[in-house]
Amino acid sequence: MSTFEAVARLGGVSRAAEELGVSPSAVSQQLRLLEEQFGVLLFRREKRRLSLTDDGERLYQTTSQALRMIRDVRSAIVRKREGRRFVMRVSPSFGVRWLGPRLKRFLDTNSGWDLRIDATPDFSRFETEITDIDLRYGPGAWSGLHSEAVLNDLVLPMCSPAYRDELTRISEDPRQQLASARLIDSVKALYRWDFWLTEQGIDTIPSVFPIQLDRSSMAIQLAVDDGGVVLESSTLAIRELVNGDLVPLSPSLPVIEFPAYWIVCPARHRNRRIVANFSNWIREEATEHDRLARNLLTRLGCTFSPPAGMDIA
């Protein structure tokens, strides 16, 4: 019927074929089949133009109305579907190690939504990209955007039990152990070895490290594999700490604590139901995670300290 409607509306086979993206012969064949089906002529052939017969006019009025209704319904369905879409951007290691294992719980209570998550270190450009929120890793205070800290980082030197035993045979002093250790540097972390060593008053270790990785997940795995000591986030390494695959290098070295994971979006996005639902859910998950991490590190003998001399909100 769409072929008939196009020919009747445009008054010619060629123009209808161009609009529909088919050949004129295909349009003519469709018209002949339709007239054979109805057993009446629908068009008068007048030189190079077609005009509707009375039967054709009645069919056109009904067909055009029906197609218009179909288009309206389709548009409504598409709008509704797009209105049920939730697009989020998240830091890669945090997305894989922390958010991913928890997503099912969110989806169980928010069914019916189309969810898209882009795991990338690049922040969203909200004015030009279709994104509801960023779950950002960073110092906070992004100009022109609503930002809410939802989870602190708890950063400490960690290694495998076997590597710690190896260092203990060198010295009981963790500072002397570090002088002999292979240090794994997470180059995109907010809090890195150079800051930490300065705060701890350790100046016997070079500021350029031979092992530099741009993904925390890789740095953590290397430490699990007895590859060295990593200064990393217990937020990202909680599974390894719980399982005993990683241990603090020494309880005498403080856990550095600061806000690091943020919900970021234009203020107007906070009015969207799915953004509010996700924000409430992640606050609850973050609170439970923080309780677990603090209890675990306290049992391991660790103490907590804010960073000194760093521009972190």
TrEMBL record:
Pfam families named among the record's database cross-references: HTH_1, LysR_substrate
Any one GO molecular function term: DNA-binding transcription factor activity
Gene Ontology biological-process annotations: DNA-templated transcription
Keyword terms: DNA-binding, Transcription, Transcription regulation
Top-rank taxon, per record: Bacteria
Domain HTH lysR-type: 1-53
The protein, known as: LysR family transcriptional regulator
The species this protein was found in: Fulvimarina endophytica
